[in-house]
Amino acid sequence: MLFGKHYLMAPGPTAVPESVLLEAAKPIIHHRTPDFSQILWSVSDDLKKIFKTRNPVYILAASGTGAMEFALVNTCSNGDRVLVVVGGKFGERWLQIAKAYGLDAVVYEVEWGSAPIPEKIGEYLEEHPDIKAVFTTLFETSTGTTYDIERIAKYVRHSGAILVVDAVSGIAACDLQMDSWGVDIVVASSQKAFMLPPGLSFVAFSKKAFGLVEKSNLPSYYFSVSGYKDAYLSNTTPFTPAVSLVVQLKESLSMILEEGIDNVISRHALLASATRAAVKGVGLELFSSNPGNVCTAVKVPEGIDGEKLLSRIKDKYKVTISGGQGKLKGKILRIAHLGYAYAFDVIVAISALEMALKDEGYPVELGSGVRAAELVLREGK
Ligand code: PMP
User: Fold this and answer.
1) Among 20, 67, 286, 378, fewest CB within 10 Å belongs to which?
2) pLDDT digits (tens, 9 = 90+) for 353-369
3) Domains, the chain, ranges and CATH?
4) Which residues of 256-358 form beta strands (DSSP E)?
């Protein structure tokens, strides 16, 4: 079989390094032991370096959406007015959670593929001074778009509202400085830049966010932050944690911190830049007007069936990239360069894209994208 090796290049779940996989093969340790507490202490400390915060980072046995719900139920109350930035599927996810809990959501609708304008968020806050929280996204994975959280934070930090950022795909791929930018809640998840299997999520609250916790009246039990807060102080977890994933987290965090968090982010930026050059080299267009480090969204060219192209890349060439979600289904491809991804991963994805385009009858010069990527990667800048 010529194309027999599989490559996972979706924006989550991402590939897991062998040393991290092997940690899961070790015998389970009990979670109420000094050994586990030691691991928990170490990963909690390391997570703060990734979040760039001095606040505790809680570890949940839930996917990223669970941590989003955790952020909202612990800080909001029934009928609260909140601002939700909706420019893709994950902005929609915030809106759906807000609606599920009976919040009064003001929606800042952003064209899919564009980033919100920070000044506009300031205008919404002036127009509705009763807004309690602003829910937004660091990297809108569904459109391949980076949001300028640093500038958004400048408008939110002097208002009465908290800023809640879904950094599920963005953290450790894009820069995010929770404390110095003044972000109040950051939500992240294991199956992205953390190079882990799915199943864990992470959430940190600022002092300002904790100020809302006591007033919040939404129902929660498993996701009540008070249990996590108390357990954190005793180096334990309120419920049975996903023990193996936490053990794996220790290994992946030490890989990230050994490389250096800012070097990891620069690597993502370089892979993204090489991918964008390659896409243009092939003669295709980017979907996003503000692309970024997690995945590159590419418009499916006129006359090509996007679903067929995606299946060919996956079934014939064994490279799993992603297509469009929701209203973008069949219209875009999303090539991830996230987590355990290096220079040759970009070459693999672009080569598969070129060959599949040729198979589908698109006039592509084989090697044009690969060459463009090589020029960027070889320079390393
Ligand atoms: N937010 C963003 C930006 C995401 O990329 C994802 C997952 N693709 C989620 C939220 C949802 O996370 P999960 O599927 O882990 O619940």
Assistant:
1) 378
2) 999 999 999 999 999 99
3) 7-14+260-379 (3.90.1150.10), 18-258 (3.40.640.10)
4) 295-299, 319-320, 322-323, 332-336
